[in-house]
């Protein structure tokens, strides 16, 4: 009889182990759902257009090192190049060129722009960045990384780019 009781208890436990997980809630938690949404969005938004200009093509249009300022390229990929601007060895700004063909909505910031540099529309992007749009395609940005680097400094460095040369890439 004892043996039969153990057998019944063992069989019952085995059944519960099989049945209970099937009855559980398989709905992903809010965290799992958010993670999957992020992964899905990243796979849609990280594509670079095959028509994007190679990053190396932008390098020659950047301002050169000048006086106490040194330009150091830090990132280069299709459709984008970035350099750090150092003053007396300290990072004060980043300089960048981005081909908006991969993200046309980036041009929206320049709709209704009142200002111009070199004949191209300029826009303030928050309190630390100034950008202009060349040939309705290439966004050139100077972003302050140090509080001493002002809007006037950013605009002066934007003007030092070879903007007409950059426009000829289009």
UniProtKB/TrEMBL annotation:
Signal sequence coordinates: 1-24
Organism superkingdom: Bacteria
Keywords annotated in UniProt: Signal
Protein's recorded name: Photosystem II oxygen evolving complex protein PsbP
Protein species of origin: Cyanobacterium stanieri (strain ATCC 29140 / PCC 7202)
Organism placement in taxonomy: Bacteria, Bacillati, Cyanobacteriota, Cyanophyceae, Oscillatoriophycideae
């Amino acid at each position: 009889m004892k043996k039969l009781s153990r057998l019944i208890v063992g069989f019952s436990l085995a059944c519960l182990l099989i049945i209970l997980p099937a009855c559980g809630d398989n709905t992903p938690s809010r965290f799992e759902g958010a993670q999957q949404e992020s992964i899905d969005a990243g796979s849609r938004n990280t594509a670079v257009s095959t028509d994007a200009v190679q990053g190396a093509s932008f390098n020659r249009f950047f301002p050169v090192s000048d006086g106490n300022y040194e330009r150091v390229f830090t990132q280069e990929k299709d459709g984008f190049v970035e350099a750090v601007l150092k003053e007396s060895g300290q990072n004060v700004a980043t300089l960048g060129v981005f081909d908006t063909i991969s993200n046309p909505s980036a041009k929206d910031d320049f709709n209704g722009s009142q200002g111009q540099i070199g004949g191209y529309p300029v826009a303030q992007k928050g309190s630390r960045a100034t950008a202009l749009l060349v040939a309705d395609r290439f966004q050139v940005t100077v972003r302050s990384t140090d509080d001493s680097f002002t809007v006037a400094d950013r605009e002066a460095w934007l003007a030092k780019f070879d903007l007409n040369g950059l426009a000829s890439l289009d």
